[in-house]
Amino acid sequence: MGRAKLQTEVRGFRSAIGAALVAIAITLAGSIPVNAQVSDFYPDFFSLRQPESFQLVLFGGGYVSDQSAVTQEGFQIEQSITPYIGVFGRAIGYQLFVGQGFGNPLVPGSGSSSRYNFGRFQGGLDLTVFSGAHLYLSGGHDAGDSHGSVIEGDFNSWMFAHSRLPLNLSFSSLHDTGNGVTSNEIDLRTVVYSGEKYLLLAGAGGAFFAGGIVNGTAGQGGPDLTLFYRPLQIGAMTQFGYGSARQYGEISFFRQFSWND
């Protein structure tokens, strides 16, 4: 999740709406015969999902660079409708620190800074494009020290799921009307360990920002690791690297809950 910044460094769950929709539309249009029926490719498309599924995800984390830092915490809820469509809502609280000698939120009491506090509230659709691939489209608005509206998309897909090295690809895009910034991210990870209790993924990711308050284009990137503990459905993600804000590092935690009726 993420903040397209009162500055450019704050990142989040985002996906390229335009690029994803265009790519998916072209792929499907080129592969589906003119007289094909929706049901041939999406069985029971108009049927309610049985059993129904409700999910809750709690998350939080922090980001720090040479120029700014942020902490965030929030939750997302999702309700299934059909086997291919769900609705979700998301609420996130941010604490953003900027300026020289900003107060590092990971080391309370250090430095002094300008601090901004705001919340972001979003809602939208979860579309299952094909098995293992989800496209999330949403919109929302900020409250507090930020007052902009946002349009966001997230695309996440597993490739080569039955191979020895399955790949997870995610990319995202968010446009913030408050500061005019469009922020984009892409991450590619593979499973390096899979056991009865633990799942470990490793890869690399990056982000770039343009428009609005950003002068030209800014960006950052580096390696990342994700550890998931299956019995409790809890995970941790970390990334560090270099970019326009020079050195940076971030860590986030999440906990999933699922109920089926």
Q: Quickly give the structural class.
A: mainly beta
Separation of the first and last Cα atoms: 29 Å
Low-confidence stretches: 1-36
Provide the spatial order of strands within the biggest beta sheet: 1-2-3-4-5-6-7-8-9-10-11-12
* Mean pLDDT across every amino acid position: 82
Main sheet properties: 12 strands, antiparallel, barrel
User: Any idea how many domains?
Assistant: 1
Query: Count of helical segments?
Result: 2
Q: Which CATH-level-2 architecture?
A: Beta Barrel
User: Strand portion, in percent?
Assistant: over 45%
How many strand elements? 12
Q: Helicity range of the residues?
A: under 10%
CATH topology: Lipocalin
CATH class: Mainly Beta
How does the overall form come out from the CA principal axes?
globular
Please state the CA-atom Rg, rounded to the nearest Å: 19 Å
Order of helices and strands: HHEEEEEEEEEEEE
Could you explain the architecture of this structure?
The protein has 261 residues and is mainly β. It has a single domain (17-243), classed as Beta Barrel (Lipocalin). The protein has helices at residues 17-31, 38-41, and strands at 53-65, 68-82, 85-98, 114-130, 133-144, 149-159, 167-176, 182-194, 198-210, 217-229, 234-243, 248-260.
